[in-house]
């Protein structure tokens, strides 16, 4: 079955461009479009896409609120949201990740990167681009904990190896890269990541990365 994608952007030309790129792939089908967050909610209910490619700034309802209503903490559905952003909207990306997005992608990303991001998110992984992550966290460095604060009790539940894995996730490394760094199998890494998410009550590795920085476990530039 192809990956069913809903395009959400208030610019028709961009939606047309994304549609052309994605429909050239045999394993991806664009099943609908929406020009704002409210339309996106209606389309998600009607079409049940696998992945929503979500713009941030839109009329009536922005992408952050739409993401929250589609994949928020109280939702347990299969729909994944991949947020589209520009460097000028970094602060909105942080809010979208907290709202439940599975990752983010720059609007000017190469076509191959867009296609790969759709596949990664549809498979249940998180699209956490390291370069953008570093830029985001550097931007918020003054707002993030200094590392001198008391370590949250939740971190005490993690084993030493799970803490190592969480730090590497926060740096934006994939499971394969973490496996190579720790000299373990990729299956072992997946197991550790699963334990981290369960113990910390997090949805995915994107929220794990945000948690690692907000808790002071990892700091920008470290």
Question: What's the helix and strand layout?
Answer:
Blueprint (H helix, E strand, L loop, with lengths): L2 E6 L3 H12 L4 E7 L2 H11 L3 E4 L8 H9 L8 E6 L4 H10 L3 E4 L4 H12 L7 H10 L20 H11 L4 H8 L3 H15 L4 H10 L8
Parallel strand pairs: 1-2, 1-3, 3-4, 4-5
Helix pairs in contact: 2-3, 3-4, 7-9, 7-10, 8-9
Organism: Streptomyces boetiae
Pfam families: GerE, Response_reg
Protein name: Response regulator transcription factor
User: Ranges with pLDDT <50 over ≥5 residues?
Assistant: none
Q: How many strand segments?
A: 5
Beta strand %: 5-15%
Helix content: 40-55%
- Strands side by side in the biggest sheet: 2-1-3-4-5
Structural Rg:
17 Å
Largest sheet: 5 strands, parallel
Q: Structural class given helices, strands, pairing?
A: alpha/beta
Order of helices and strands: EHEHEHEHEHHHHHH
The global form is globular
- Subunit arrangement of the protein: single chain
The tally of helices reads 10
Cα end-to-end separation:
42 Å
Mean pLDDT across residues: 82
InterPro entries: CheY-like_superfamily, NreC/VraR/RcsB-like_REC, Sig_transdc_resp-reg_C-effctor, Sig_transdc_resp-reg_receiver, Tscrpt_reg_LuxR_C, WalR-like
Domain Response regulatory: 4-122
Organism: Streptomyces boetiae
Keywords: DNA-binding, Phosphoprotein, Transcription, Transcription regulation
